[in-house]
Please model this.
Amino acid sequence: DVKVTQSSRYLVKRTGEKVFLECVQDMDHENMFWYRQDPGLGLRLIYFSYDVKMKEKGDIPEGYSVSREKKERFSLILESASTNQTSMYLCASSGTSGGDNEQFFGPGTRLTVL
Amino acid sequence: RKEVEQDPGPFNVPEGATVAFNCTYSNSASQSFFWYRQDCRKEPKLLMSVYSSGNEDGRFTAQLNRASQYISLLIRDSKLSDSATYLCVVTPDNYGQNFVFGPGTRLSVLP
Model:
């Protein structure tokens, strides 16, 4: 059974704190993604990575950074959390070799910044 | 114009009804198409891929019209468990990158 796991389901942080969200996939996928999802705004891409140490900005990268040191792990970092970063964060992965290349999502991390 | 647009919904239908969702996309070079289902406060999960010839999976039928840049999802004999948000997803390539999500259409199946 394919799996994408995220380090926390719920997280509460204070304004200005540094926040790490971790994602691990066991499908040997090349591509990994971080999205945030807010009511009325749908899924918005923050960053994605197509290989180890490679990253590309998505639609809303401001205030975020990412790290991909190993193929199976993709981290999202909020350098200084702000209240407008309160959201549901979803990690996903996809392959590139054959098949439909659909995305598989983790269960999400609901982050609240106070 | 948004890249992927869907019926705004919500759709409230009785059990047993047939319901159809529509999705249009703006990038004519799009290569792969999917329908995802997202339950409340859960992650999106793949419902089905959409092929040029159309495809069916039990009560679910997906159609693609490349000329009109239009995708549809038909659900027959709706069940209470079909209540969810349905997301239309389009990608311009076959490399597993650049997924564009529609805003989703919420379905409530009522007893």
